[in-house]
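queue> pop job 88
queue> type: inverse folding (structure -> sequence)
queue> payload:
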């Protein structure tokens, strides 16, 4: 299969006017017959018994221990009014240095 990356953008039309028009920037990669897909290499190495592309169980367990500690400690989400400077609970972050001083008051 072809690998395609497309990005939509607006570009200025030629001329002095500041008119824009939508366009799509596209990059297409068509692999040739000699190119091996990542999964083909992975399966080939597995069938040959080469462990270099695979993580050992102890490495996976150590990585999950780090990730699990992050997932287990959730930061609370505080609601606040749209257009405001944020939730009241955020004021505690600046309490030690004199508190938050609103730039609009």
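queue> result:
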């Amino acid at each position: 299969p072809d690998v395609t990356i497309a990005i939509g953008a607006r570009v200025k039309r030629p001329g002095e006017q500041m008119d824009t028009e939508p366009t799509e920037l596209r990059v297409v990669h068509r692999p040739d017959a000699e190119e091996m897909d990542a999964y083909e290499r992975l399966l080939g190495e597995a069938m040959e018994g080469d462990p270099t592309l695979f993580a050992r169980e102890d490495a996976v367990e150590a990585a999950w221990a780090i990730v699990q500690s992050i997932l287990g400690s959730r930061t609370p989400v505080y609601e606040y009014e749209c257009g405001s400077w944020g939730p009241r609970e955020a004021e505690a972050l600046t309490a030690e240095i004199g508190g938050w001083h609103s730039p609009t008051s």
